[in-house]
Amino acid sequence: MKLDATDHKILSALLANARMPIAELARKVGLSKTPVAQRIKHMEEIGLITGYRAILSPVKLGLTHVTYVEISVSDTREAALQQFNAAVRAIPEVEECYMIAGGCDYLVKVRARDMGDFRRIFAEKISVLPFVNNTSSYVSMEAVVEQNSALGI
Amino acid sequence: MKLDATDHKILSALLANARMPIAELARKVGLSKTPVAQRIKHMEEIGLITGYRAILSPVKLGLTHVTYVEISVSDTREAALQQFNAAVRAIPEVEECYMIAGGCDYLVKVRARDMGDFRRIFAEKISVLPFVNNTSSYVSMEAVVEQNSALGI
DNA sequence: CCTGAAAAATTATTCGC
DNA sequence: GCGAATAATTTTTCAGG
Hints:
5 strands, homodimer, 2 domains, DNA-binding, alpha+beta, Alpha-Beta Plaits
């Protein structure tokens, strides 16, 4: 699963435009279409490229209210954590969730229409998650970087 | 810019697969190809659909080390914040950055290969950002939800 | 492992209704 | 908005270096 410079170029191009035709990709990376198609297929097969997705404007969708909720849980045994994880994954408004080292707290990113929408989501879906002990919400005032996918490639 | 249920279905489908042909989309939403193509074109034109992107596996790329860095800045005047924002946007390893209400702190999500990689990025790129006053780093132990794009649609 | 062109398949667009 | 015909793209294949 080694990626050479050509693979990186292909990935970069597909990160910028998932619908770029193979012919154009081939031109960009300086190869013919055949090897480019093979490389892409291979990267799909090994699960490196997991899919292709439309990128939507949060502003145009009216979904600009971003809040990070820090959650401490009352039970940090594996079974409880698994249960918590599964419950979090079932909430569509949760865009991201990471377990943070230290006190086994979670950091949950919630996207909503506005403060009222967030309060509803929080009351109905976040605060009722299993084993929630304590939460702190950090409301975003401005999206400085959003959806950056350069991944340092 | 009103979106009806059909538009939502189209967006959902394109979030799941940006390369879905119009014929298949049409079948899914119960319309013929013509109106579906028109709706997509319209949503692209008004900037609701901003693009199409390949989704890569952080695991396969070896980029699983996620850290949230909380940064307090020493100057919260508009000009300073603009300068900070521009500098943050220039760092490819910064996947997201939000300004948080309260003390005008920033929450910056950094993706790296491993702890060593993060330390280098932090030393070379994060800690030298303009007007950085104080930072706290929160290291992720587990990605519970990553790249969820359902957006509550 | 790559090239280049021919062939095949898929996809998008355009029409009258 | 429909559906069929048209037109255009795009992917795949294959002989050859």
